Each structure stands twice: as C-alpha cells, then as structure tokens.
C-alpha cells in the first residue's frame, strides 16, 4: 500500500539548505512508490495551485534514504499559507497515486485563497523590497520587523509598519557579523572570538547554545543558536560586532538568521544527529553546515578546517559555494590547502614549531605560541589549538589586529567562568575533575586524547545521553569512553531529555555495552541524574584519581556542588 507520511512541514525564514530565499518545505517518508513519481505529481499539483492563486515560485526537492524533501520559495508575508499549499499539493498527489478520484482536485483553492488573503501584508512586503533596494538590512519575525544593525537598528511591530516616505534610509548601517558552525567546537570558538574582540576594545555580542550575551551582559539563558538568537543580538544597540553560533537544527528548521555576514567558520563535521530532517550521512551533514557560506557578502571570507577531509572534498567539488574568499587552517604546516593558499598569497593559518602562524598577501606573521593559550594545555588539547586557529582567522577577517588576537587567546582561560561546560578542570580533595559537554564520538575522542596522558591512580567517567540519540550513537560513545580504561563507569539518567524513551533505557544500553567490553558488574554504577552522578563520583574519589564528568545536563548545579566541596 502506497504511503506518504509527512514527518514535518515548516516555514523557512532565511537562507537554507535548498535556496537563498524564504519558503516552505516538508519531509515526506515514502513507501511502495518511487520518489520520482511522488515528485512529478507533487510538482504538477503545486504548479496548478500556485497558478490558481496568481503566485510564482522556485520549486525544489531533495531525495534521501526513505524519503524526499519537497518545497518552494515564498514571500515573507505568506509563509504559513505556503505550508498549507505544499501539503495540499502532496495530498492531491497521494490521491492520484492511490487511484482515488481527483475530479475535485482543486477544491482546496477557495480555502487557500482565503488563508492567503488573511496572511498577506502588502506594507510588510513593500518595506522588505525597499530595504533591499537601499541595501539596508531588514529582519523579519512573526511579531516585528527591523531595519539596520546594532546601534542604528530600529524595530516596528508587524501591525505598525511605517510609511516608506517617512524612512531616512541613510540612518541605518550594518555591523560586522560572523557565523560559527560545525559538529564540535562551536561554542568554544565563539567565546574565543568574544575574548579577542574584547581585547581589541570593540563591544561584541554573541549567541550560543547556552545563552545570548551583549557587551559582557547575559541577556537570557537557553539555546540561542538559531535565527531568533541571531536577530535578537543583531538588533541590540550595545553590539558593535556580532558572533553567532549556528547549529544544525536551526539551519534545517528555519534557515539562517541573517544573510549579511563578513566571516563564517566551519570547525569540523562528524557523525552527529544523523537521521533527523532527512540528513542520514556525514556527507549530507557537511552540506548543512555549509549553509553558512550562503550568508557571506561579496567581500566575506569562509574559514574552513583543512584537517577535515570531508570539508576539503566538499568545497573542492562545490567551488561555486565560495562566494568571496576562503581561509584554510591546519595543524600541519605542509597541508596541501595551506601550501596552496600561501602560493596564491591568500590567507591561511597553520601550526609550526609550537606557534600559530598567519599568512596573507605573501606575508607571514607569528600570532602566538601554543603554550601561551591556556585552553591548549601546553599543546595537549589539540582540538583547542584548532579552535584557536579558527577563532583567530575569523577575527582577522573582521579586522581585528594581531596583537588583540594574541591577547584575547592568552586571556581566554577556558574555565567555568568564560567557557562553562567545555574543558573545565577542578581539583577537589586531591582528585582532578574535568567537566565537559562532549556528546558525540568525535568530541569525546578529542577529550580522551587530551586527558589520557594525565597521570592518575584510578579513573572514572560519567556517561549519559539525550533520548534522540540512536542506539548506535550510544554504543559508539561507550566504546570511545572505554578507551580511557576507567575503573568505574557511571551511567547517568537525563530525565528532562528522554525525548520519547523510557527511564532506564539509555543507562541499560551503556551498561550492556560496558559488560560486552569486559567491564565487571560492580564497575558500573547507575545515577538518577547528572548531579547525582557527580555526587557519587566525588564520594568515590581519593587523592590522585581522575574524574571525567560528561555533564550534558544540570551543569550549573554540578558547578555549585563542586564549589561547596572547596
């Protein structure tokens, strides 16, 4: 029996995986029919509906394992109706595939016409078009619209759009904007950039999965790595330069929050969150991370990790995505991309003799010695050398001087005050405690590579995962954790992030994998949550022990608990 199951139908409010414009898209899971048949019929009915409504659009589709993305471009003042139009076209396609009558195929038109009439906002659309003509940044949300960035930004409720004749376009200006994405190192890289910009004397703002901050003041806590966080920060009058963490989920759900960035950094791409939004392979995930390149202005620079073979291969195959310039960075001074950049007298960074070197326009400059960057742990934390290079490159592109870059990296301690949850070390009653957010095999491997050389009488690791991780993800992470050869493994429940799983399911998967890896039953301890796990770990610890707490939840509570222990 033919089945077309819409997993999600949603608006795209900015540049996205499919097009540079707003629009509507759905994930459709397909069975017992070829995707080409579904696409052809969906296109047929969508074109009929659009023509009946007097609309034109750019149609797009994308196949993935078990399904297809179907969508089209749409104006900002009709995105909800666009989702209804998309779903109606698919329903008609499904009827035809199932041999159901289609004599009344365009019955939805009257309803769609009414929805479109109710949603349309000519004044909003006129302001958007006028802003584009005057090259002024215009940002639109459900409730408000704004012109300009930073100090010049002005906002209006959607219901109170100003007359175009009243607007003085020369009053609105942009600020430098950088986007940071990747599988791991996003938050750390953004915070390194923030420290560098602060050292230069510029008032920076940043967004992340933890909070949104403007000029050293946290505006709100929570996950602001999507377009809402970006627009909130860009509109803040205190911000002279914006550093935006951009996560996979936000880009896939809504697209980018801005299309005017001067720099975009991709730290790395690894197996993480596969199976969501029709992204089933690392290669497809790379294309998602590369969405940030769509935000760059003509004079913008894409900063890319040359040590990531997937990224190198992707941009070699898709050079058209590099709209401005590109800057490669590598831990290897003989990396082919770095050597090519030097030959072309274009920007590159690399590690040589324990120092980070920057080259541009045929001139090479030593930025800083790795041992002067606290987060690198005298070079042992190679992932933070890489993060430092990416952050330095972004700030250089934004016009920050080399002295401020070096000063910012020196001042960035990477502790729980300036980089909470990422590589935070404590000494508690003679035991070394590391709190980290490592939540996938790639990031955990980097952490274990760093800490494996730390001498310890005994080792303990606390593992816990959100419920949307696959069993395969959990098993892979457990395998990586076992490479530390811990004496004890704590399996921590994360009750607030079960995401459809039952209590006890994830700790049981971890436990069974540990037993399969040769651990004894008494080496595996269950904790009801991350804070409980931390308490168990510290009660177990004696002087000389090493404890790795992968605190994916209750991080602030754990910090407070450690503080109570001195």
Strand content: 15-25%
- Cα distance spanning the termini: 65 Å
Quick check: average pLDDT?
Answer: 93
Radius of gyration: 25 Å
Record the strand order, biggest sheet: 11-10-9-12-8-13-14-15-16-17-18
Main pleated-sheet profile:
11 strands, mixed
pLDDT < 50 stretches: none
Individual helix count: 17
Percent in helix: 25-40%
The total strand number stands at 24
Q: What is the 3D form?
A: globular
The secondary structure category is alpha/beta
Describe the structure.
The structure is a single chain. By secondary structure, the chain is of the alpha/beta class. It has 17 helices and 24 strands. The strands form 4 sheets. Strands 11-10-9-12-8-13-14-15-16-17-18 form an 11-stranded mixed sheet, with helices on both faces.
Describe what is shown at a glance.
By secondary structure, this protein is of the alpha/beta class. The strands form 4 sheets. Strands 11-10-9-12-8-13-14-15-16-17-18 form an 11-stranded mixed beta sheet, with helices on both faces.
Secondary structure layout:
Elements lengths: L2 E10 L10 E9 L3 H18 L6 E6 L2 E7 L5 H19 L10 H12 L2 H12 L4 E3 L3 E4 L6 E4 L19 E5 L4 H15 L3 E4 L3 E4 L2 E5 L5 H8 L6 E5 L2 H6 L7 E6 L15 H8 L6 E10 L3 H9 L7 E6 L5 H8 L4 E5 L2 E6 L2 E7 L12 H16 L4 H10 L12 E5 L2 E6 L4 H11 L7 E5 L7 H12 L5 E5 L12 H12 L7 E4 L2 H11 L5 E5 L4 H10 L2
Parallel strand pairs: 8-12, 8-13, 9-12, 13-14, 14-15, 15-16, 20-24, 21-22, 21-24, 22-23
Antiparallel strand pairs: 1-2, 2-4, 3-4, 5-6, 6-7, 9-10, 10-11, 16-17, 17-18, 19-20
Helix pairs in contact: 1-2, 2-3, 5-11, 5-12, 11-12, 13-14, 14-15, 16-17
């Amino acid at each position: 029996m033919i089945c077309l199951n819409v997993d999600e139908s949603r608006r795209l409010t900015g540049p996205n995986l499919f097009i540079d414009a707003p629009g509507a898209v759905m994930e459709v899971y397909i069975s017992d029919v070829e995707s080409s048949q579904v696409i052809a019929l969906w296109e047929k009915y969508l074109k009929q509906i659009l023509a009946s409504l007097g609309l034109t659009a750019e149609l797009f589709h994308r196949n993935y394992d078990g399904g297809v993305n179907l969508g089209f471009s749409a104006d900002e003042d009709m995105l909800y109706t666009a989702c209804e139009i998309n779903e109606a076209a698919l329903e008609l396609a499904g009827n035809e595939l199932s041999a159901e009558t289609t004599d009344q195929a365009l019955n939805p038109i009257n309803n769609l016409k009414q929805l479109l009439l109710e949603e349309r906002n000519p004044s909003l659309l006129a302001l958007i078009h006028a802003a584009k003509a005057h090259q002024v940044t215009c940002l639109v949300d459900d409730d408000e619209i704004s012109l300009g960035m930073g100090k010049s930004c002005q906002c209006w409720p959607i219901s109170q759009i100003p007359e175009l004749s009243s607007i003085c376009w020369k009053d609105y200006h942009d600020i430098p904007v950088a986007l940071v994405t990747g599988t791991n190192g996003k938050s750390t890289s953004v915070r390194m950039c923030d420290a560098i910009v602060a050292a230069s004397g510029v008032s920076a703002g940043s967004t992340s999965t933890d909070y949104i901050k403007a000029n050293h003041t946290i505006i709100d806590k929570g996950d602001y790595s999507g377009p809402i966080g970006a627009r909130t920060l860009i509109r803040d009058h205190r911000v002279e330069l914006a550093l935006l963490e951009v996560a996979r989920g936000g880009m896939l759900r809504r697209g980018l929050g801005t299309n005017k960035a001067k720099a975009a950094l991709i730290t790395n791409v690894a197996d993480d969150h596969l199976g969501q939004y029709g992204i089933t392979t690392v290669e497809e995930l790379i294309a998602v991370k590369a969405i940030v390149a769509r935000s760059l202005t003509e004079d913008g620079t894409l900063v890319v990790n040359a040590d990531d073979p997937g990224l190198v291969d992707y941009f070699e195959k898709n050079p058209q995505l590099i709209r401005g310039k590109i800057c490669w960075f590598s831990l290897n001074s003989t990396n082919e991309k770095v050597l090519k950049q030097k030959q072309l007298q274009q920007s590159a960074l690399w590690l040589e003799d324990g120092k980070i070197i920057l080259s541009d326009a045929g001139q090479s400059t030593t930025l800083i010695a790795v041992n002067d960057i606290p987060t690198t742990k005298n070079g042992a934390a190679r992932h933070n050398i890489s993060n430092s290079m990416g952050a330095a490159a972004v700030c250089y592109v934004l016009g920050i001087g080399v002295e401020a870059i070096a000063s910012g990296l020196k001042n960035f301690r990477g502790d729980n005050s300036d980089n909470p949850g990422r590589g935070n070390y404590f000494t508690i009653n003679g035991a070394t405690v590391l709190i980290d957010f490592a939540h996938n095999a790639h990031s955990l491997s980097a952490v274990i590579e760093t800490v494996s050389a730390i001498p310890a009488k005994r080792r303990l690791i606390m593992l816990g995962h959100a419920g949307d991780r696959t069993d395969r993800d959990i098993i892979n992470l457990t395998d990586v954790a076992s490479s530390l050869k811990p004496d004890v493994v704590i399996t921590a429940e994360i009750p607030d992030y079960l995401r459809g799983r039952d209590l006890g399911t994830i700790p049981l998967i971890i436990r069974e994998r540990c037993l399969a890896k040769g651990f004894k039953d008494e080496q595996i301890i269950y904790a009801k949550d991350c804070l409980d796990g931390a308490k168990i770990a510290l009660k177990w610890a004696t002087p000389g022990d090493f404890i790795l707490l992968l605190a994916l939840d209750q991080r602030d509570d754990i910090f407070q608990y450690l503080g109570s222990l001195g």
